[in-house]
Amino acid sequence: MAGRPESGGPKPAGYYRLARAVLYREAVLFVRYPANAVGGVVIAVFFFGVLFYGGRMVAGRALTDSIEGIIVGYFLWTLSVGAYSAISNDIGSEVQWGTLERHVMTPFGFAPVALLKGVAKLVRTFLTSGIVLGVMLVVTGVTLELNVVTIVIVAGLSITSVLGLGFAAGGITLLYKRIGNWLNLLQFGFVVLVSAPSLDVGWLRLLPLAHGSGLLQRAMLDGTRIWEFAIADLGLLVAVAVGYLGAGYLVFQYATRRARRLGVLGDY
C-alpha cells in the first residue's frame, strides 16, 4: 500500500534515534576537537583564579568567609553560560556554515533538532563545569556537600530556563544574523541572576536562575537533599524552567517561520 514502508525495508527514524545521533555527534565533536573544550575549562579556571586571588588581596577575610557561596555561584554561572551560548552560538554557526537549511528540511523539523542539540550541549557542559568545580575546590581547599543526584536535578532545572533564553536568542540570530555583542552582554546578566537575593525578595524567584541558585546554595552548603526541599520550592523551580523553556521555544519557532517567509533563513 502506498505510504507504507515495504516489509524488510528501512524503517523511518524516530526521536529516539535522532536523540542518539545528536548525542553521538556531540561526543565525536568533543573528542575530535579537545583543544576547544580544554580551552573553555582553562578560561573558566583562569577567571576564577583572578577572582579568588585578586579578591583575597583586596577584600581579605571578607572574601574568605564567603568563598563557599562564590564557588557555588560560579559553578552555576559556568553551567548557565555553557547552556546559553551553546544554543545561540550553534545556530549562528549553522547559519555561517550554510548547513542550517538541512536541519529545516529534516522530517522532524528544525525546532526539535535544535532542542535535542541543546540537551546534548547540556550534558557536555555538566562534564566541563564539573571539572571546573573540582579545580576550584582543590585551589581553595573548601569542602562542599556534593550529593550528585540533588545537584544534577536542581542545577539542571535551573539552567533549563537559560536554555529557553538561548532558544529566543537563536531565533533572533536567524532574523538579524550578527548580534553577537548583544548576546554576549546577556551572559554578564547571569551574574546578577545567580547572586539575586531570591530568599528575601519573593518576586525574584520568577526570574531565570534566581530561585534555582538559592536552592543549589542550600544543597551544596547545607547538605539539603532533593526530598528535603519543600514541595512548593520544587514546584516553582519546575514551573520557571518549563515556562522559560516553552516561551523561548515559541519565540524560536516564530522567528524560524518569519525568517522563512522573508527568505532570509539561509542568508548570511
UniProtKB/TrEMBL annotation:
It comes from the Archaea. Keywords: Membrane, Transmembrane, Transmembrane helix. The chain crosses the membrane at residues 33-55, 67-87, 102-119, 126-144, 150-176, 188-206, 226-252. InterPro entries: Nod_factor_ABC_transporter. PANTHER family: ABC-TYPE MULTIDRUG TRANSPORT SYSTEM, PERMEASE COMPONENT, NODULATION PROTEIN J. This is ABC transporter permease. It comes from Halobellus ruber. The lineage of its organism: Archaea, Methanobacteriati, Methanobacteriota, Stenosarchaea group, Halobacteria.
